Amino acid sequence: MSRTDSAAAAAETASGTEVVLAVRGLGAGYGRKRVVHDVSLALGEREVLLMLGHNGAGKTTLLRAIFGLGKPMGGSVSYHGRDITGRKAAENVTDGLAYVPQGHGVFRTLSVADNLELGGFVEPRSALLAERRERVFELFPILAERRSQTAGTLSGGQQQMLAIGMALMHEPRVILLDEPSIGLAPNLVERVMQAVVTINRTMGVAILMVEQNVQLSLPIAQRALVLKTGAVVYDGPPDPLRDHVELMKLF
Length: 251
Known about the structure:
The chain has 251 residues and is α/β, with parallel strands linked by helices. It has a single domain, classed as Rossmann fold. It is built from 10 helices and 10 strands. The chain has helices at residues 3-8, 59-67, 89-94, 112-119, 126-139, 141-145, 156-168, 186-201, 214-217, 244-249, and strands at residues 19-30, 33-44, 48-52, 76-79, 82-83, 97-100, 174-178, 206-210, 223-228, 231-236. Strand 1 and strand 2 (33-44) form a beta hairpin. The longest helix is centred in the last third of the chain and has 16 residues, at 186-201.
């Protein structure tokens, strides 16, 4: 799909579901350097949209601009039809958006339980927080076993699970997930991908996920988007990208 086609598709999804997050002609970068150019995409309700691309393609920059951690250089972002372009990240969190950065974004000196409590800071009702914490423990039983352990002493995979759990503590409707498998052993990558499926299908959360593990991430996505040097070069069904040769042509 061309960049023009992708822009037109930003108002719809392949499944025809309601669009919860729409990006139109977005540009982003750092200082005066533009990294992302005229990107459009649409994330449907209860959908997993996988974003692929080589290192430096602008994937993380795009997620940060969508979430309000980077200033857009043109274009717009809408959430449930409301313009949120450039809105502060804290406001996005209270409105049901979550962002899990790469590199296990946890508070290393605090316990697992304290990290989860901080993840739910927007919810003042302690009973609801307790319910959500138990839901995270059901999803990641190892965290329940280590609830009193300092987060910095957890393995990389356990820290990634905790970071995802923290995002779930404020019951988001959309999660922006940046390379959840980075630095993890193969068995832990499978566990994290299984969790993504559960979050999407059981909890009904729409997910925009950046991931380098094509083999494990393509099967769980309803749609895929490929970014190359900051621009969309493919937006469509994931099946054609399972052909390694065809995928490499886009990189």
